[in-house]
Amino acid sequence: MSDDFHESIGAAAGKVWTFLSESGPASATKLADSIGLERTDVQRAIGWLAREGKVSVERKGKNEFFSLS
Question: What is the phi/psi pair of residue 25, to 5°?
């Protein structure tokens, strides 16, 4: 993977982290709509943050909500 790809995921992770910090739990769809990223970029960012132990997920029915750990 290229450095540009890693940088774009890192930047997306920063946006996701900031949104969750300021607004609380959100679904991937709400995150994408609120911060102006494609849903796939949000999912990659969530994976990045999850690997670092910075985000957790809670299922409510069929929906998943992400929050800071």
Answer: -55, 145
What are the phi and psi torsion angles at 2 (to 5°)?
-80, 160
Q: Residue 5's pLDDT is what?
A: 86
Question: Taking Cα atoms as reference points, which of 23, 68, 16, 25 lies closest to residue 43?
Answer: 16
Alpha-carbon distance of 64 to 26, in angstroms, equals 8
Residue 59's nearest CA partner among 27, 30, 32 is 27
DSSP class of residue 43 equals H
Identify whether the C-beta of residue 24 lies closer than 8 Å to the C-beta of residue 55: no
Domain 3-68 = CATH 1.10.10.10? yes
Q: Is the pTM of this model over 0.85?
A: yes
The C-alpha atoms of residue 14 and residue 5 are separated, in whole angstroms, by 14
